[in-house]
Amino acid sequence: MKRIGALFVSLALAAGAVAAETAQERGKRVVYEALQAAGGRAYLAMEDRVESGRAYSFYRQQLEGLSIAKIYTRYLTPVAGKPSVRERQCFGKDESSGVLFNQEGAWEFNFHGARLLDPKRIENWRDGTLRNIFYILRQRLDEPGMDFYSRGGDMYDNLPVEIVDITDADGLTVTVYFSRLTKLPVRQVLKRRNPDYKDFDSEETLFARYRDAGGGVMWPLSIRRLRNGDKIYEINSESVQINRNLRDNLFTLSAKLKILPPAK
Hints:
With 264 residues, this protein is an alpha+beta fold. The chain contains five helices and 14 strands.
């Protein structure tokens, strides 16, 4: 609660005199307005979340996979520079297959057993989590070294937006487009080094169809991800629920699962 109170003191200060703002002051104001629009105190008090719907994967813009999906997320005490969250992505009606991420590692599982994920995939998840605007709003706003720099206003997809670069103490940046009408994020863009081609991949995520997930917490039902302009993933949720009192065993591998050797 002390952390929540401190953040709202900062919110009040950032929302003060708008005139003669520096780029950093304007960026911070826009980000804290987004926190308030997302639910404010209720958003910061969100302990877990369950998203249910359909997930689509794409390869070279062609639909590659479609599945009923359920994503379980549980927030942990924030630790600077580390993803302080557990996540379980389940696919199919019986939720017998999916992916699990926790502080010990990450595994792909099904009825055959569980297999440790490729290190590159794990690192991409960690990096993507740390630079996800919704994770930043919940876990990182008071982290030392966080910088908010406004690029000013613009139009995106016929929508007036405020554009803000958010950079952490390690120099990792995500550029976020916030709707001037709702104050909520509509787009984020980050760059990630491609170790194979020695250049950078651009990853873009679009957020739409916001709904109240409970207690005033706003969450997008539609999330679409693109890499270098090609669509790679999309989830359309039918429902989003928060504070379901998710237990530890949901985010740990079952002792009954066989541990499979790494993929070749």
